[in-house]
Amino acid sequence: MRPPSAVWIMAMITASAPVHSSLASDITELFESPRRSSAIQALSAEQIVRRAFENVFPSGFGMEIETTRVGTSREDESSEFRVYRRAIDGEMRILTESLAPPEIEGTRMLQMESSDGAERTFAYVRSVAREPFATTFRLADPFLCSWYDKTSSTEPAGAEPLQGAYRPPFQILSRRPDKVEGEPVQRILVRPLIDRGYDRLELAIAERDFAILEYLHFTTAQDAAPSLVARAVREDMVVLDGHVLPTRLRYEDRALAQVTVVSIRHSPIPPDAPDTLFDPRSFHRPRTAPLAPAGAQ
Q: 3-state SS of the chain?
């Protein structure tokens, strides 16, 4: 998994030819109860991971994301994206639109995930004179809006999803208590059972509110150390409609000696956003709108 740039869209073309809530200025007092911490410790590792992802990726919300990548041998690179999430007909549908840089502006990806493990991804590239098409790419990291190739199929934009036996999304490898900046966390190592572009992921999940404070990505089974480390700072988090959400993440790509800073604005999706934005036949046509200022940080 790599931070986004104009390169990923060229690779894709080749491969594929609810309610507003006030933001808390200080959330450190919201979840201080020792009883809550003890209750979370009593949960299974799988339950904790599920709760953590439910917290950080709420349905009906959107994100506006700006990434700045700093490397040792090149100028800083910036990208901007808008992401909408909505549950429709038992599926989670994720629409990602590139806002910058200019060479990929207007490019859209629609990812559709059902609870039985079936998934589809469709792409629209404004600079290419063709209708939306099914692609073998899927979203690898919602905060970086980075993508990876998962299969080698090319379906028309109305094709039925691939069907198969239900598989749980991840396998628990280990769990241990730890602290991040003095805050108690559960460190849980998981291996995705559906291809995610990496071998395993260690999550540092806060005991008091399920906020994910660290992500450690291991690219291959042989890696003893993580190749990508992401950290969210507690002071940069906000509370929106009961969800504790990061507004800034720092990614360290140790293989490439690069740092990517991700700034995020969260808000409920505009109420007039049509369902056609989440339909593979029409997601490229409706305009998306900037997210409400109430969700901006």
A: CCCCCHHHHHHHHHHHCCCCCCCCCCCCCCCCCHHHHHHHHHCCHHHHHHHHHHHHCCCCEEEEEEEEEECCCCCCEEEEEEEEEEEECCEEEEEEEEEECHHHCCCEEEEEEECCCCEEEEEECCCCCCCCEECCEEEEECCCCEEEECCCCCCCCCCCCCCCCCCCCEEEEEEEEEEECCEEEEEEEEEECCCCCCCEEEEEEECCCCCEEEEEEECCCCCCCCCEEEEECHHHEEEECCEEEECEEEEEECCCCEEEEEEEEEEECCCCCCHHHHCCCCCCCCCCCCCCHHHCC
